Amino acid sequence: MVCAVAAIVLTAYLASARSDTAIGLELQVITAVVLGGVNIFGGSGTLVGVLIALFVLAFVKNALGLVGMTPEQQDIVTGAVLVGTLIIFGASRNVGEARSWFARLRINRP
Fold first, then answer.
1. pLDDT tens for residues 56-78?
2. What is this structure's pTM?
3. What Cα–Cα distance (Å) separates residue 96 from each residue in 16, 63, 73, 92, 108?
4. pLDDT for 33-52, tens place per residue?
5. Which end of the chain is more exposed for a tag (fewer CB within 10 A), N or C?
6. For the chain, which residues make up each domain, given as ranges?
7. What secondary structure does DSSP assign to 70-91, as a single string?
8. 74 with 65: CB under 8 angstroms?
């Protein structure tokens, strides 16, 4: 439903409906979703978290543009944010799995 509303808003903003309108936005969308707390390995997230991440990414891209970075350099920063977020979420997931493994080990001990 949110995707449909976004498509309608983008079509109204551009005043045209083409099939290739949003090509190139995949990196920003995936980064906003992952930074917003949606688990890329499966699971669920919240819309509020994704909206907050979207505003943070828009602020960062705007700041980078004001500094004078090219769009390609801004995409590199966006990709670095995505990789950093995946590393942090992956590490926290591994820590949680290790804790549950140690908890099971203590419970099963005679």
1. 999 999 999 999 999 999 999 99
2. 0.69
3. 47, 35, 35, 6, 18
4. 888 888 777 767 788 888 99
5. C
6. 25-107
7. -HHHHHHHHHHHHHHHHHHHHH
8. yes
Question: CA-CA distance, 38 to 30, in Å (whole number)?
Answer: 10
Long-range contacts of 23-31 (CB under 8 A, 24+ apart): 27/75, 27/78, 27/79, 27/82, 28/57, 28/61, 28/78, 30/82, 31/57, 31/78, 31/79, 31/81, 31/82, 31/85
Calpha distance 79→73 (Å, rounded) = 10
Give the pair of three-digit tokens for residue 58.
């828009």
The Cα 80–Cα 55 span in angstroms is: 17
What is the Cα–Cα distance from 85 to 53, expressed in whole angstroms?
A: 11
Q: Is the Cα dihedral 83, 85, 91, 96 positive or negative?
A: negative
Side chain identity, residue 86: L
- Confirm if 39 and 89 have CB atoms less than 8 A apart: yes
